[in-house]
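Hi P.,

Sorry for the delay on this. The queue was packed all week, but I finally got your sequence through. Input first:
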Amino acid sequence: PFARFSSSTIAEQPQPQKEMIFSLPPLPLDLRQWQHSTEKNLLEQALKESRYNQKMAAEKLALSYDQLRGLIKKHHIKLSV
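Then the structure:
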């Protein structure tokens, strides 16, 4: 009556996401600078978590590989580990 679970079935289960506490910066602020630094921080975090595998980092951010490469260039992010 109960379905057996294979190791591949268990491995396919989505992993729970880490809960992040996020607060907005106090106003007044330079919105463009805040967006720029936040975007750069997210790119760097995704790259570190994926051990600088750009394809994996792009997937973490729901971007295409080419979009990620464009943002890396825009923010002058060094890829040497």
